[in-house]
Each structure stands twice: as structure tokens, then as C-alpha cells.
Amino acid sequence: MYQVLYRKWRPKTFKDVSGQEHITSTLANEIINNKVSHAYLFTGSRGTGKTTCAKIFAKAVNCLHPVDGNPCCECEICKGIDSGDVLDVIELDAASNNGVDNIRDIIDESNFTPVSAKYRVYIIDEVHMLSQGAFNALLKTLEEPPEHVKFILATTEVHKIPSTILSRCQRFDFKRITPEVISKRIEYVASQENIDIEKDAALLIARIADGALRDALSLLDRCSGTGEKITYEVVSSAAGLAGKEKLFSLIDAVNKKDCSNALSIVSELHNDSCDMERLCSDMLNHFRNLMIVKTVKNPEELIICVDEDMKKYKEQSSEFNLQQILYCLSVIENSIISLKNSINKRIETEMTVVRLCNPETQGIDPSIISRIEKLEKIINNEDFPKAAVKNTAQQPEYNENKTEQKIKQEPEKKPEAQPEQDQSGDLPFDKWAEVISSLSSSDIPLMGILSGSSAYIRGNFVLIKCDNPTFPQFIKLPLHSSALKNAIEKITGTKYRLGIYKSSENNQPKRDPLADLINKINN
User: Fold this and answer.
1) Tell me, what's the pLDDT at 299?
2) What is the DSSP string of 319-374?
3) CA distances from 216 to 53, 179, 244, 481, 520 (A)
4) For residues 224 and 193, is the Cβ–Cβ distance under 8 A?
5) Which of 189-198, 288-297, 387-396, 440-449 shows the lowest mean pLDDT across its residues?
6) Are strands 427-428 and 461-465 parallel, antiparallel or unpaired?
């Protein structure tokens, strides 16, 4: 019977495990030095090798002829554990066996000596699913188990496990496997299975897997079912991704504010069965790559892509400023959150694209928009141009005497000296440019937000005048406010508090200019 690739190529020894050398080397050394603990906790994201390492460890501690801390995989114990014939290694799924009675069964069984192996090993997967009563029942046995019993607990959500359990286990944190390591493993498995795969396709599979080698092998298995050479397009189609060319075209349309073209591309991708959540995720990752190219000296170290795509990223990033990129990232991130509860994901995605193409609509009161539309209708009215021409035609007659008299009455204006402070008494902050420049080493996003801004000193406050609409949200975050305060203190030697600049004119009540203009046109 056919066996799927992630099961067929599951590592048999610690040496075969990819990307977790910091864990496998430690476990092997413990076995070599005979310093094996009674309880282990393996934690990490899915597909990173937790259960695999638990099974290898169970074989290694029971192996009749271990080699450098690894199981030999040739003795009857190793073969029996792999086939499931050895009953001394028990694997329990806590998601479906999470009650107190299930744990009591384990406690009762642990009192019996192993049948054929040296140790009785209990592997409890998804241990965070156990009930509070089950955890309490396990506590005493987990702390002082019989000498012939070993516990290995595995979980993806370690924060849900009680601290009383954590303190009784030796903890190992499994990292997400890097795309480079996954890509090499994919190419190796493909070569052993006589699967023809391009390097770009292997890199794409590694990126989609998001650190999970099991997911990568499952996707490779799905792509190999086509019977064709696995190319970038084959992987993209199998995973329901947007083609890179269309993704670059979509971002170009956003940059040009071409909403019609952008929505047409979204429609094409939807008709091609592209998942809308995946499309938004790809757009988020695309703008993230543009941000990295814009801010990092060697982006190749942080972006996994082929040289041709890196060249396109660099070209496209030159058409955006950092402020635009951060705005797009914020809009898409909020939309991804909304997509999870959206009734129609296509509409939510189209709304996202419209917001990206029309940033001026963000945060504007709908009542103001309706009033502007009303004003535009009045201006576009047929009677308005005639009235404007009529008023323009009635020019006052030129009177030489009145003109000369007016000139004599008006005193000659002398150029006024530039005041050192404005009407409110705020002093301009002369070293503001140096403060912004110093942020390049501590807070690059904030440096981009403050581009073109100015600042004033009012007592022990530094008041910042910034036209960027995202600045008020940025400065409220402790990370950015602390970085700015430190930069100001570094330049001036004085500790200042931060504020947003508002001139005295803005504090005085003003008449609504839209209402005045509408009344003037109507009259």
C-alpha cells in the first residue's frame, strides 16, 4: 500500500532530524552519558519534529546496540517499536483521551515492569488538552515515577500547561525549521523518489510550509500527483496561491492608484480558485519584502526568493516610500483579522484593495464625504459657471485719480525680521533633524513616519508637528515613544516629555469653510 511521503521519510535516528540540532545533540549526549531524565516536555509549532524525536528517544533508551546515542534500528526492540509490536512504548493522544480516568489507567499500568524493553515510555501528544483534574492526577507520578518509566509530553501550546507540570519536566523548545533547510530536504526526498522538481518550486514549498517540514512533504506529495515536472506554477496552483506575476501586477496597480485594474486582477484570481485569505497573506508578505528591501542593507539574508524576484522587489520598492509601505501593511493586517469573521471573503478582499488604492478614504468621517459630494454637485451645476462668468465680467472701472490716492495713503511696507518664536511662545527645535537621523539605529519605522516633520519646545515638552496620519498611533506605543525620548536626550542632554503640536490658531473656534462656501454659491 502506498505510504505518504511525510510518513515514509520520517527520521529514524537523531542524525536524520532536520533543523533541531540543538535538541537532538543534547538528547544523544544524555543517552551516551546515562543521564536520562524521567520526564521531558517537547514544545513547538506543528511539523517541527516533536513526536518524531519522542519516538527516536523511546527507541534509543531501549536499543540493545545504541550508536553514539542513536538507536541502531536493526535490533528486535527498534524494529518492534517502529512496527508497533513492542507494547512498552505507549503513545496517547490527549485531545481524545483527556479525562482523569485515562490518566489513572496510565498510573496503574506504570506500576508493572516492562514486558520486553528496558523502559516503559509514555508519549502524551497535545498534552495541553488534558483537563485540570487529569493534570492533578498526573502530578505525583510525574514527579516520582518508577525507575522503569519515562514520560515524554508534547504540545504546541505550552502556555496552557500548569506550572506544576512544567517544573517537573526537562523542557526542549523546537524551533521553526528555516526555509533553506526545508528546501534542501525537499530536494533530497524528491531525488530519492525520482520526482523532477525545480529549485524555485522547492523554495516556494519551503516558504508556504512556514517552518513545518511535515507540511512541506505533504505539499510535495500533492504536487507529485500531477505526474509532471514540479515547477513554480505547479506548486502555486496546488497551494491555491496567486501567481507572482499577478501579485507584482496587483501591487503596481495599487501604487498607480488604478483601482479598476487592481479589482480586475482580484477577480481573475478568484475565478482561478485562489483563496482570498491566502491572497491577503501573500500581499502582506510582499509588502513585508518591500519594507525589508527599503530598510536593510543586505535584504537577501532576510528574504527567501530567487535572484530574478529579488531584482523585481528592488525595482518595485523604489516606487514606494517607507510611509506608503507601512500604511499598506497596516491596512492588510487589519483586513486579515476581519477576513476570519467575514461572511463574504471576496468582498472583504476587494474592500482592502480599494483602501490601498484610495488612502485618502481612511479615517474620514462619512458626513464630511457627503458634504464634499454636495459641494461638487453644486460646482458642476450648469448655472454655476454662468454665475461665475457674470461676476467675473463685472470688473470695476479704472480710475487713475483713485488709484494714485490709494497708493499715497498706503504706507510703504518694510520687511519684518523673522521672529524667533511663534505667537504661542513655542521655540522651534533646531536639532530636530539630528534627532530623526539618530533614530536610524534604534527605530527605522518611526524615522520614516517622522520624515518631513518639525518640532517645537514648550517648557519641558517637545511638541511634534507631523502631517503623517499614522503618527498619533505610532507615538502612543511605548516602543516608539521610548526610542524617541532616548534620541532627544542623546542629542540635547535633557529629558523632555512628548506631545503633539497644535498651534494657537487651531485652538480657536473656526467657522466651517465648507458651509461658508456652499452658502456663498447658493446666494
Assistant:
1) 87
2) TS-HHHHHHHHHHHHHHHHHHTT-S-HHHHHHHHHHHHH-GGGTT--HHHHHHHHH
3) 18, 10, 19, 41, 67
4) yes
5) 387-396
6) unpaired
User: What tens digit of pLDDT does each residue of 190-206 get?
Assistant: 999 999 999 888 988 98
Which residue is listed with cell 499598506? 328
String of DSSP letters for 245-290: HHHHHHHHHHHTT-HHHHHHHHHHHHHTT--HHHHHHHHHHHHHHH
Length of the chain measured in residues: 523
Per-residue model confidence as pLDDT tens digits over 48-106: 999 999 999 999 999 999 888 999 989 999 999 988 888 889 998 888 888 888 888 88
Distance of CA 427 to CAs 294, 457, 500, Å?
34, 5, 14
The alpha carbon of residue 136 and the mean position of all alpha carbons in its chain are separated, in whole angstroms, by: 37
Q: Give the pLDDT of residue 443.
A: 81
Q: Over 70: is that where the pLDDT of 4 sits?
A: yes
List the beta bridge partners of residue 173: 43
Burial class of residue 363 (count of CB atoms within 10 Å of its CB; 0-12, 13-18, 19+): exposed
Mean pLDDT (the chain) is 83
8 A C-beta contact, residue 247 and residue 286? yes
Question: Using 50, 70 and 90 to split pLDDT, how confident is the model at 393?
Answer: very low
Cα–Cα distance for residue pair 482/496, rounded to 1 Å:
11
- Residue 423 DSSP SS3: coil
Domains of the chain plus CATH, in order, are: 5-173 (3.40.50.300), 179-239 (1.10.8.60), 244-361 (1.20.272.10), 427-502 (3.30.300.180)
For 450, residues 6+ apart whose C-beta sits below 8 A from its C-beta are 436, 439, 464, 466, 468, 471
Edge-first strand order for the sheet with 149-155 is: 89-93, 120-125, 149-155, 39-43, 170-173
User: Whose CA is closest to 48, among 216, 171, 235, 219?
Assistant: 216
Element (H, E) at 123: strand 120-125
CA distance 135 to 244: 48
Task: Report d(CA 122, CA 188) in Å as an integer.
Answer: 32
- Helical pair 276-295 and 322-339, crossing angle rounded to 10 deg: 160
Q: What is the DSSP string of 380-407?
A: TSTHHHHHHHHHHH-PPPP-HHHHHHHH
**How does pLDDT run across 357-381, given as a tens digit for each residue?**
988 766 555 556 666 767 777 777 6
E strand segments, 23-93: 39-43, 89-93
8 A C-beta contact, residue 170 and residue 41: yes
